[in-house]
Amino acid sequence: MKTIATKRGVLPGFGLTMGYSVLYLSLVVLIPLSALLLNSTGLTWGKFWDIATDARVLASFKVSFLTAAAAGLIDAVLGLLLAWVLVRYDFPGKSIFDAMIDLPFALPTAVAGVSLTAIYSDKGWIGSLLEPLGIQVAYTPIGITLALMFIGIPFVVRTVQPVLEELESEVEEAAATLGSGRVRTFLVVVLPQLYPALLTGFALAFSRGIGEYGSVVFISGNMPMKTEIAPLLIMSKLEQFDYAGATAVALLLLMISFLLMLIINTLQHRLRKTAR
Amino acid sequence: MKRGFKRGIVVSLVLAMSMVTAACGSSSGKSDNSVELLNVSYDPTRELYESYNKAFSAYWEKEKGQKVTIKQSHGGSGKQGRAVIDGLKADVVTLALGYDIDAIQKKGLINKGWQSKFEKNSSPYTSTIVFLVRKGNPKGIKDWNDLIKGDIKVITPNPKTSGGARWNYLAAWGYALHHNNNDQNKAKEFVQQLYQHVPVLDTGARGATTTFVEREIGDVLIAWENEALLSVKQLGPDKLDIVYPSESILAEPPVAVVDKNVDKKGTREVAEAYLKYLYSEEGQKIAAENFYRPTLESLKEKYKDTFKDIKLFTIDEFGGWAKAQAEHFSDGGVFDQIYVPGK
């Protein structure tokens, strides 16, 4: 039989912590979001629909979601590798390497954007090597993806790392003694346990990428219909003091992101169940 | 493990929040014999107001025996205007275009008719739009019509996100009008062609300058004269040349007192004096030294070697900012039609 005390957990102070959480959530998340809703109520449905189906808005959504998804996917693969290296091997300078993963969190995104552009533009170190091959990175969607990869990689590493740490290598050894090859051990034994964490990492990197503004505007070139991201469109509407239009785009962006997150989260829930 | 990590994040967030609130709580009070002004300005006036503030403080202390500290805030013109609307307690605004001050006026923070409160349309200094090209002008760019020839690449910021870039756009439009018997369609065609030569649309003027100078992208940068002169001075005249087109627009960055704020803070007198002193000989000299065109006749003569005399037209040619904004830069306006055909 469960008593109330055990239901609430060992630590006291449920009322206080819950109260604080609710207050914090409302001040920082809920009230600003409802202000967003209120601001766009100045629009009629017809006008909202016009903004939602505007060719430029649609094009910018396409750019934002595709580049964020691509960056998230690449990050998922690269992040897994990074986490693997950090968890499974010891090498000199590991702790420095480990700390460096968090740098994209700390660095102002504008700085990231400016330095990436400097390196990948036609005249930059790497850009000048790629240019003869016909590959242009800066001022194309590839550049945007690159910036978003930079921003998103810590999310994947930091979500996968702890799960990897708890995986016991004995399980892999057991699989090996039972006659499973390396590839099969990885695909059948290791990977399924990592899926939920990988998915979380992807979702975080992806959603961060959709809203990213600071680093992208420097490397994207901001060409309407081609490399214009949705957050930039919001900024340019604000620049015209068009609050309602800006919030309409923001609301759309939020709704689509929320839907995608919901789908990813349910998917993750299922994966977690099957992984057990 | 993961939960511990998340909890760590939440705890540090809470800590950070409480630190911010603590920092905000401890703002300084003021004594009777000192006064503080906040000047909300746009990006490239930083150096200008740094030296002007010193000059004005000295002048005011001598005149009234009162110490005045001037704080500055810089950023994109539209963004700064919005900050004032949203409650930034600016005493004066010194922005890139009248449209942004109009927007503040519409919210009731500035009284109507602000533009006639000070001389010369409330624009103590002016500038114009010129071309910055690579040393020796390898592509032979002399005038606006050279910009749409062959594979010339033009760098200019997005007029929808950069107030300054709206002057660039209108300068091109005005030139095209005058060379096509005021045919609006021909002008539109010209500007359309011009923007097809733009490979990168930066969000602000400084960004565009970086693209052109540091990334070495493009053959010509359309820039404010003060930015062009400053770039040449800072980066060395061995890298860049300035080309003056046959005609251009007179850019008038206006100033205004934010009436609601100064009346509340009791700073009207000093705020008005602050803007008025911009028209004095000393203020004009500081403007000229920071590459803004002075409006005082005696100084115009003195600096005529720095600021080349070219044919200049004004925003009135477009029926004022409200009309120009609605026609060209609002959503679905002429600028949007360049990129989204058939709308």
Automatic annotation (TrEMBL), chain B:
GO terms for biological process: sulfate transmembrane transport. It is found in: Periplasm. Residues 1-22 form the signal peptide. Keywords: Periplasm, Signal, Transport. One of its GO terms (molecular function) is molecular carrier activity. Belongs to the prokaryotic sulfate-binding protein family. GO terms for cellular component: periplasmic space. This is Sulfate ABC transporter substrate-binding protein. InterPro entries: Sulphate/thiosulphate_BS (IPR034408), Thiosulph/SO4-bd (IPR005669).
